[in-house]
Amino acid sequence: MRGNVVDLAVAVVIGAAFTNIVNSVVKGIISPVVGAVGTKSLDGYTSCLKGPCGIDAKGDAIGVNILWGSVLNAALTFLITAAVVYFLMVLPMAKYLARLEQRRRAREGVHETVEITELAVLKEIRDELVAQRARQNGQYGQPGQSGQSGHAGYGNQGGQGGYSGHPGSGY
Predict the structure, then answer these.
(1) pLDDT tens, position by position, 46-96
(2) How far apart are CA 68 and CA 5, in angstroms?
(3) Residue 159 backbone class (left: φ over 0; alpha: ψ -120 to 50; beta: rest)
(4) Closest by alpha carbon to 136, among 152, 153, 151?
(5) Of 12, 60, 80, 124, which is the most exposed, with the fewest CB atoms less than 10 Å away?
(6) Quick one: the chain helix, strand, coil %, rounded to 5?
(7) Gyration radius of the chain over CA positions
(8) Rounded CA gap, 163 and 171, in Å?
(9) What does the alpha-carbon distance between residue 50 and residue 73 come to, in Å, rounded to a whole number?
(10) Distance of alpha carbon 30 from alpha carbon 36, whole angstroms
(11) Which H or E element spans position 55?
């Protein structure tokens, strides 16, 4: 099993427990604050779409009611949950991961500097070998005269060389 599956399972369990906390905050704090203005429960806020509206003796709704108070209650619960998850979990984790990435880049920056220096030395060695090969070809005759000298990709001196002996072919 991979660690991501375990992390997901823990998140589901914590989310289920966290839902109860958010519902308690909405019912215990937000609903009474709203109740100071109107009804204590947000579920009590309705609008009548088609009358007559009300509640009969059995407790059933009469008419067509829009229960916008329960929608408001659910929206507030969602916003509180999202805010708490973002500010207490997502934002700190993002900052933590950014710091880890910054530290990793700082460590790799030193390593890259060493690699860049090694790359520069290797380029100098390559250039010296190409120059040395050009000097040797100058002492022993022009490349491509015997049909075997000159190598493709290694400093095609003056456009001459190649296996066919044709000037400028490079192959």
Answers:
(1) 788 877 877 778 877 777 888 888 888 888 878 887 888 788 888 888 899
(2) 38
(3) left
(4) 151
(5) 60
(6) 65, 10, 25
(7) 39
(8) 6
(9) 23
(10) 10
(11) strand 47-55
